[in-house]
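Data card: per-record layout.
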Amino acid sequence: MGTKIEKSDHGSLALWAAECAERVLPRFEEKRPKDGRPRRAIEAARAWTRGEMAISEVRASAFAAHAAARAAVYAPAACAAARAAGHAAATAHVPTHAAHAVAYAAKAAAVAPDAAPDTAAEERAWQVRRLPKRLRPVAFLPPRPASLLPTHFSPAGRGW
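The structure for this 160-residue chain is written out next.
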């Protein structure tokens, strides 16, 4: 992606990714209420933007959130929500992780058992409205053909 961004925009992306991940975090917490790793990753992303946490600590919390996702693989919405949190924290290290955070957040919303068919599109529309236009090229990955998406990212019947 190679897009260069200002430090303040980098922080804005991390905050936005954290907000998007937090919006679907209940999907994880419903299945694993005692596992606070994804929530701590979201908090770490926010702490980094305030200068309260080093990148190394934020990265560790991102890795922990991804470990929580692996522990929730039996529940696709929970797993995706934890991955959203992990990528939100990783945005502190590399801004383009924001794109993955919001993609997983949309997936968490879309694959939830109570999701309507247009849930992913509604989630994406909400995400877009929350982000300044100047940051959209960094925050949203270009669409990829389904054949190029990893199978864990392509739940049947959800338009992924």
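Known properties of this structure: The chain has seven helices and no strands. Residues 146-160 have pLDDT under 50 and may be disordered.

See the next section for split statistics.
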